[in-house]
């Protein structure tokens, strides 16, 4: 197991609490938007410009030379702009699929699928990269897979 790290200060606690509230607000807001019959594509259309307006200033403050580095990489690597567009397309697709899964199932199903994805990624990394695994890790992912299976079974029975 990992050692417990205590919260060291009140400002650190408020940062953790803020992150938690924002995460929960994101899930609730997405559910509310999808329940108001807003199409997933339109939800992304309206959210994206607002996200840019919020994140761009934050990126410029936290990483002052980000534009310079991006332009420099674009000049050095001929496929950098193609990769950037491909990355953006993949991020858009991931967000859209999250909205669609939430719309057609539930936010809980989306979280369970996220746990299943983590377990699959670990198993694949073990087989491909021969990453070492501890007994605690195996036990944890076994519990995760058992939980995913139990959730699927419960959902199937109570339909």
TrEMBL record:
The chain crosses the membrane at residues 12-31, 43-61, 81-101, 108-129, 135-154. It is found in: Membrane. Its main location: membrane. One of its GO terms (cellular component) is membrane. SUPFAM superfamilies: Multidrug resistance efflux transporter EmrE. Signal peptide: none annotated. Keywords: Membrane, Transmembrane, Transmembrane helix. PANTHER family: SOLUTE CARRIER FAMILY 35. This is Sugar phosphate transporter domain-containing protein.
């Amino acid at each position: 197991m990992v050692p417990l790290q205590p919260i060291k200060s009140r400002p650190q606690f408020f940062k953790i609490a803020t992150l938690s509230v924002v995460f929960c607000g994101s899930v609730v807001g997405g559910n509310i938007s999808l329940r108001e019959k807003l199409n997933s594509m339109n939800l992304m259309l309206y959210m994206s410009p607002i996200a840019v307006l919020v994140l761009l200033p934050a990126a410029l403050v936290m990483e002052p030379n980000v534009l310079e580095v991006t332009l420099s990489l674009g000049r050095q690597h001929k496929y950098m702009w193609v990769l950037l567009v491909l990355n953006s397309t993949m991020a858009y697709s991931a967000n859209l699929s999250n909205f669609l899964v939430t719309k057609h199932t539930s936010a809980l199903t989306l979280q369970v699928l996220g746990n299943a994805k983590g377990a699959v990624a670990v198993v694949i990394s073990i087989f491909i990269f021969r990453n070492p695994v501890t007994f605690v890790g195996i036990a944890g992912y076994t519990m995760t897979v058992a939980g995913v299976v139990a959730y699927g079974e419960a959902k199937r029975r109570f339909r």
